[in-house]
Amino acid sequence: MACIEARGLRKAYGTTVALDGVNLRVEEGRILGLIGPNGAGKTTALNAILGLTPYQGELRVLGRDPWIERDQLMCDVCFIADVAVLPRWMRVSQALEYVAGVHPRFDRAKAEGFLAKTTIHRNSKVRELSKGMVTQLHLALVMAIDAPLLVLDEPTLGLDILYRKQFYDSLLNDYLDRNRTIVVATHQVEEIQHVLTDLMFIDRGRIVFECSMEELESRYLEVMVHPEKITAARALKPMHERLALGRSILLFDLMTLDKVDRQQLAAFGDVRTPSIADLFVAVMSNQAGQAQGAAL
Amino acid sequence: MSTQSNAMPESPLESQVIAPAVMSATRPMYWSVRRELWENRSIYLAPLGVAAVALFAFSLSSILGIWEKPLRLNPAQPQAPYDMAAGLMMLTGIVVSVFYCLDALYGERRDRSILFWKSLPVSDATTVLAKASIPLVILPLLTVAITVAMQWLMLLLSSAVLLVSGLSVATLWTKLSFVRMSWLLLYHVLTAHALWPAPIYCWLLLVSGWPRRATFLWAALPLVAIAGVEQIVFHTWHFATLVGSRLIGAAPTVASTSPGMFPTDPMTQIAPASFLSSPGLWIGLAIAAAFLAAAIRLRRYQGPI
Question: Where is the domain boundary, A145, A179, A204?
Fold first, then answer.
């Protein structure tokens, strides 16, 4: 059974279409990065998955309908939203007590263990903690919940680099040891590159690109082309071209090339796997080009 | 991706398959009510504060009574200061309830914590019912408990003052039938200040669930509009009177021939049967239930503002 399965997911706010027929399938144990510009529909998609917003179309999360069965679903799903949402009046000890009280899968000792590694005092109120500490607290609560699906919506927004690194490190070390599925939406692409198993780009309510990380490595190539070979390289129709340090960097989709051309690429210059950010820019600018073409 | 840097000791539970989890239905309710008490400390601090002030005023009056014996220590109605203090406590309960309800479903949207609450396995029905239980159950019981404790302290205090000034305590204790007063208070608060105004509190709770700001305006304006239209069209004030009497707890809980002026007067003849069979009570409760159902539905749709 797929962990998340959506068909023709649609959501409109008035005349603004936030989700425009999204089809999505996330298998158990995958770590999916949902990447898109601001306002692309990432948060709306996650809200639909979490049962926070009504939608049109078909959606099953862990075999349940999130809108109808949110409370039961939340036994099996953890969620950290894009901003600190822990109530500011709450004490750290109250947060632990409350979650232990309502969540059947919460392991309080484990959460205490995570907190012991931080400088957070049990007696502090959330309002007295720094933004980074609130995220640490929320992560400690969530990671002590033994749930098969974790949804993160811009979890490190507004955190400094130390906290961001720490966040993903603890996620890797303490969470990813079982058949757990993670969906993380972000537009800070670089820091999650090494965490993901799958990648999905979303733009204007549509999924415009999806691939696994293995596919990314085997299918896409970036070539820093020697100036004298640029015409020959361009003739192979790269997906995207950009300039860096005076050199042209061309991004190729190997599926569009035949065998001979593939071998040729190495001769053009240094070859490497593109980063998610480079691929994202390539896909998005192609999207923009298509949209413009359609408009003309 | 490499995870060999993971040197964390793992508990044996870690490797187990994630097991299905069950939890009794009352636990989320219990913790939701506790959450309300944590978040809104005025629920118990306000009555405690008012009780302390009333006690202070009473002790001041009693001590002055040492020099003004006939007036203050042996008043014609020993009941009066106790009723006054109890009335003050009930008024406090109404004020706290109104402010609590207006913020109940609004505060969590304003500070975005609704995303946290909704990320936990607590249903919207549980949350809304827990919030409704504050003005309808918790606060009335708390008011009675604090009032009774306050009245006991008042009684002990005036007894002490009587002893100091060499007067007999017996008259005071025989005139005041304390246990009966406490039962009457409990009856009065649960009927007139919980069941009777239930539609008002549930209306405020419902309204707190939808506007982006100014919940008080959204709650009050429709009532003012209805009253205004009625006055202009029919030249009557039935609606305003109805809402007002519900709010202050003017309920038919005592026999109409009852001599007691105040519901906790020991002479009061209570009439629970006629109260429970009055259509007004049941119409009010039905309206309250409809408002609550609407509030539950509303919370499902609402996110942070």
Answer: A204
Verify that A39 and A156 share a domain, yes or no.
Answer: yes
Residue A221, domain member (yes or no): yes
Residue to mutate among B23, B31, B40, B115, with most A CBs inside 10 A, is: B115
Q: Using a CB-CB distance cutoff of 8 angstroms, which residues of chain B are in contact with residue A92?
A: none
- Say which DSSP state B18 is in: P
Contact assessment for residue A184 and residue A149, using Cβ atoms and an 8 Å cutoff: no
Beta-carbon count within 10 A of B9 CB: 5
Residue A19 falls inside a structural domain:
yes
Calculate helix-pair angle for A92-102, A108-116, nearest 10 degrees: 150
Q: What is the pLDDT of residues A52-68, one digit of tens each?
A: 999 999 999 999 999 99
Count up the domains in chain A and report the number: 2
Find the closest chain B residue to A98 by CA distance: B31
Count of alpha carbons within 13 Å of A222, Cβ hemisphere only? 22
The answer to whether B42 contacts chain A (CB < 8 Å) is no
Q: In whole angstroms, what is the distance from residue B223 CA to residue A62 CA?
A: 46
* Domain boundary, last residue among A144, A171, A204: A204
* Residue A135 structural domain: 4-204
Q: Which residues of A touch B29 (CB under 8 A)?
A: none
For B24-37, write each residue's pLDDT tens digit.
778 899 999 999 99
pLDDT tens sequence across B173-189: 777 788 888 888 999 99
| Predicted TM-score of the model (pTM) | 0.87
